[in-house]
Write a structure and sequence with these properties.
Blueprint (H helix, E strand, L loop, with lengths): L1 H18 L6 H9 L11 H4 L67 H4 L18 E4 L11 E2 L1 H7 L10 E4 L11 E4 L1 E2 L1 H9 L3 E5 L6 E5 L2
Parallel strand pairs: 1-3, 2-4, 3-5, 4-6
Antiparallel strand pairs: 6-7
């Protein structure tokens, strides 16, 4: 009886001592190497866990077998149905504050008092939108550039560019304005997309004529009357 009691005490003490031994000893390494692991990798991507994608490369997609990608359709989130659902009580809106109150606390587009985006966009450079931004950008033709034209000739931007009286333009529509030098050409017909009132008076005062061109086709629309 005494021997059985001593043997049980030795076994229990050996087991207790083994639990406190470090795991990086050679004996433990040998034990682990001989023991086969039964662990399997868990699939954490729940969208593809239950999806059958075995024949995705073999079938031809038609209108009758089209389906959504796995995980693309999500079940709607029910708020205010208890804290176990994750969106109970305050429903994700916090404890207090303006945005936690019932109803719509702010109007759409409100940014806390600063200039909202829909009012900043029309002020941007480039191609702004909105009222007050229909300005047309013209290439300016000065009246003193027409002084070299012969009497009775028809002058346009193309003829001035060919004669070397002006340089190439950034914009495709042209406007005749008053230059710094005096206008001395007589009896010329000027073709442009727009005229200032002072330039028109100077051309017609010297016996010339102004012809308005279309901004899209470039055709002569009508002679501008004084």
């Amino acid at each position: 009886m005494m021997r059985v009691f001593l043997l049980a005490a030795l076994v229990s003490s050996a087991a207790a001592f083994g639990s406190f031994c470090p795991r990086n000893l050679p004996s433990h390494a040998a034990t682990r190497s001989t023991r086969s692991s039964n662990l399997s990798m868990k699939i954490y991507d729940w969208k593809r866990r239950t999806a059958d994608e075995s024949a995705i490369h073999q079938e031809e997609f038609t209108f009758d077998n089209l389906r959504s990608a796995p995980g693309s359709r999500k079940r709607k989130n029910r708020k205010g149905r208890g804290i176990a659902a994750g969106q109970g009580a305050s429903c994700g809106f916090g404890m207090r504050g303006q945005k936690s109150r019932s109803g719509r606390p702010t109007r759409p587009g409100f940014e806390g008092g600063q200039q909202p985006l829909y009012r900043r966009l029309p002020k941007f450079q480039g191609r702004p939108t909105g009222p007050g931004h229909s300005k047309k950008l013209f290439n300016l033709i000065k009246l003193d550039e027409l002084n070299g034209a012969d009497e009775g000739s028809t002058v346009s931007f193309d003829s001035l560019l060919e004669a070397g009286s002006t340089t190439k333009a950034k914009y495709s529509i042209h406007k005749v304005v008053v230059g710094r030098a005096d206008f001395s050409a007589k009896g010329v017909t000027v073709q442009a997309h727009a005229f200032t009132q002072a330039a028109r008076d100077a051309i017609e005062g010297s016996g010339g004529k102004c012809e308005l061109l279309s901004r899209t086709t470039g055709a002569v629309l009508e002679a501008v009357e004084a």
